[in-house]
Design a protein that fits this description.
about 475 residues; 4 strands; elongated; mainly alpha; about 60% helix; four-stranded antiparallel β-sheet
Length: about 475
């Protein structure tokens, strides 16, 4: 009888272990890993939220917010406000179609004018009527949709039409190039700097994926400049100075990376919050809301948030200490099933990883390229005033030229040499950045179409009246 009682107790104990064991294991697993860098991540979310709210406070003011322009809403508006049949869209499409024919051809605009091409002339005239208003809207400090009751909470899932903005910026840069060929330099600089303003509005967007569009706009606009504006251009010192100042003040800052990182962290957090400060989740269907609530009740969302917080917090710490930040941890870049199980990898961060690494590499490239073009403009401004190029870049600072923002000329980022008749300037690109690309964006167009700029394995090189074999 006693052995039978012991057997029953053993069976009961085994059943309890089989029943409770997985529950206990799940509870332990779902509570790990511990949250690290939590305060730093929370501060990032607060900073992003504060920027969002500050922008929204002024978003309804058409004097401050260029996005509100009724003329260009059919092109750059959020979903539901675009209209491909609007006259502005037709004029834009006609002009960029003509620009497609001249990609990589420095003399394209001059040739079209000499030939008297009717389609080119008509498209140029139609787009030129848009330029003053477009330049004015691009120069405004804000470029954001109005979220909230006026447009609907679901609008927060939308963003301005980045492809439309990209097309407008390309149109402006191409228009600037067409004016350089006929000596209308002040108007050309107006249009070109307007294209850069449009790019700047997109470079610190809510996610890395959207911010990459801003990088692309920057890349295309600066490539257009490298092809169509060379030191041989007989532009007066005043316009070289204006271009130098405009480029120098617009050199993308590394602070931009922290802003986009904070925005991405906040975006990921608010997309899973119920209810939320941010209107993002108000656009979820009832089934989606039920699923999110179920996942939060089981603790899976909280675990995902902790893992994401740990990874992003580590990146923020690197930025704070000035350490390398070009790549995410190996576990994120090469995720495995064990990495997910052990809490080393987050699904949300894994989804962001390619955009993050592409963005950081593109930011490095763009800083070197824009600072290089700004320095070339300063060199030409100096040469027009002093009838010779400076022996060192520091001499330009002494003469009052505007140094590229946070890339002063006494840094190792520049390799400059004055030559008997001209100069050579190299802007090195870090090896770890070059490794992110099979080909540097715009390199083929610049190398084929520019007489003075080139892209090599070392970086961006600007060579003026200097033989290729000259010892640098």
């Amino acid at each position: 009888m006693g052995s039978k009682s012991m057997s029953v107790r053993s069976i009961r104990l085994t059943c309890w272990v089989l029943f409770l064991g997985p529950i206990v294991f799940y509870l332990v697993w779902v509570l790990l890993p511990r949250r690290l860098h939590g305060a730093l991540v929370d501060q990032s979310v607060e900073a992003s939220d504060a920027r969002f709210l500050e922008d929204q406070r002024n978003a309804r003011d058409p004097e401050l917010n260029g996005y509100l322009s009724p003329t260009f809403l059919p092109v750059w508006g959020v979903a539901g406000t675009r209209d491909s049949e609007a006259e502005v869209c037709k004029a834009l499409n006609q002009w960029t179609d003509r620009l497609d024919e001249g990609v990589g051809k420095p003399l394209f605009h001059v040739a079209m004018r000499k030939l008297g091409d009717a389609k080119y002339d008509k498209a140029h005239a139609a787009f030129s009527e848009l330029v003053p208003a477009l330049r004015k809207q691009a120069a405004k400090p804000l470029f954001v949709p109005v979220y909230g009751d006026a447009v609907g909470y679901s609008a927060a899932l939308s963003s301005p039409n980045s492809m439309g903005i990209r097309q407008l910026a390309r149109g402006l840069a191409g228009y600037a190039s067409s004016l350089i060929g006929v000596g209308r330099y002040p108007q050309a600089m107006d249009a070109y700097l307007g294209a850069l303003d449009l790019a700047s509005h997109q470079s610190d967007a809510a996610t890395f994926e959207r911010a990459l569009v801003g990088m692309t706009i920057w890349e295309e606009a600066t490539t257009e400049l490298a092809i169509h504006l060379s030191p041989e251009t007989p532009m007066p010192a005043t316009e070289w100075k204006r271009l130098a100042s405009g480029l120098s003040r617009r050199v993308p800052s590394l602070d931009q990376l922290e802003i986009v990182l904070q925005n991405q962290i906040a975006f990921d957090k608010h997309s899973l919050d119920l209810p939320t400060f941010n209107p993002l989740t108000h656009s979820l269907s009832d089934d989606d809301v039920w699923l999110v609530r179920a996942l939060r009740w089981t603790g899976l969302i909280a675990r995902e948030e902790r893992i994401s917080s740990n990874i992003m917090g580590t990146v923020l710490k690197r930025l704070e200490r000035g350490e390398s930040f070009e790549t995410l941890p190996t576990d994120v870049r090469q995720p495995s099933d064990s990495g997910y199980f052990l809490g080393k990898v987050s699904w949300t961060v894994t989804a962001v990883s390619p955009s993050y690494e592409h963005y950081t590499a593109a930011l490095h490239l763009l800083r070197a390229k824009v600072a290089g073009l700004a320095t070339v403009a300063c060199l030409m401004e100096y040469e027009r005033a002093h009838k010779s190029f400076p022996d060192t870049l520091a001499q330009m600072r002494e003469s009052g030229s505007t140094e590229p923002r946070d890339l002063s000329w006494n840094r190792s980022d520049y390799k400059y040499r004055k030559t008997p008749q001209g100069f050579v300037l190299l802007m090195p690109i870090p090896i770890q950045v070059m490794a992110q690309f099979t080909q540097i964006p715009g390199a083929d167009v610049i190398n084929a179409g520019s007489g003075f700029a080139s892209v090599t394995v070392e970086g961006y090189r600007f060579r003026y009246r200097t033989p290729v074999g000259f010892q640098e």
